[in-house]
Amino acid sequence: MSGSAFAVTHHAFSSGAGRTSDGNGSHASTLKSPSYTKSVSWQHYQNSRKLQELIWDKLVAYVNDFNLSNQEKSRLILRLFDDVKLLFNEVPVSILVNDIFLKDFFMKQPDFAKWYFYQLLKKYEGEQLYLNELGYVYGNEEKTNEIVNNNPGYVVEIFEEKMGNELKIRTRMMEILRDGKINICEYINKEQLEKLNPPEDLRIAIKKLGWNN
């Protein structure tokens, strides 16, 4: 497999998979060459969750096509993860919470499970920081309505996206702590947990599972 994310994705799109519907039945062509990514149009597609998931699904399809050991599969996933990061400048949440990371070949290897939790934690910190600054409290409908009513539309749009991301990442972090049986003391301590200020379910999972394995 090529080490270039652009080469892999170009192959996927040139085969006819790289087309997205405009919602009216017609289809617009996407990446036809690496140079296309330099155009203004790329910014629109770069933020498309459908495109992000399409690229990732095309990449990870290779994982099961080869007779690889569990460790080799996991290392291939890490390589693809880095390629996606280069392509999108960061790993989108839609890819970060992909179910490929819950596969036994990945989850039953503590080093890989810990690596994955750390990626989730770093992303979660950014989402939660934004929400904390707005005064958001998970489950507090009154506070949520206050934020929506007292901020301009573009802020509300970002807020709603961050709120959805927070829930997706938090849910996945708790799954990893439950099933991965990893110790995360090196990634987050008591002081950092208080600063993070997550909802109670994640706080409890970190204390009972992440610090005691």
Task: Please outline the helices and strands.
Elements: H1 5-17, E1 19-21, E2 27-29, H2 41-46, H3 49-60, H4 70-88, H5 93-96, H6 104-107, H7 110-134, H8 141-149, H9 153-180, H10 190-196, H11 200-210
Antiparallel strand pairs: 1-2
Organism: Shigella boydii serotype 4 (strain Sb227)
Protein name: Transposase
Structure description:
- The chain is mostly helical and 213 residues long.
- The protein has a domain at 109-213.
- Helices cover 65% and strands 3% of the residues.
- It contains eleven helices and two strands, in the order H-E-E-H-H-H-H-H-H-H-H-H-H.
- It has helices at residues 5-17, 41-46, 49-60, 70-88, 93-96, 104-107, 110-134, 141-149, 153-180, 190-196, 200-210; strands at 19-21, 27-29.
- A two-stranded antiparallel ribbon has the order 1-2.
- Helix 1 (5-17) crosses helix 3 (49-60), helix 7 runs antiparallel to helix 9 and helix 9 runs parallel beside helix 11 (200-210).
- It is flat.
- Mean pLDDT is 80; it is low at 1-40.
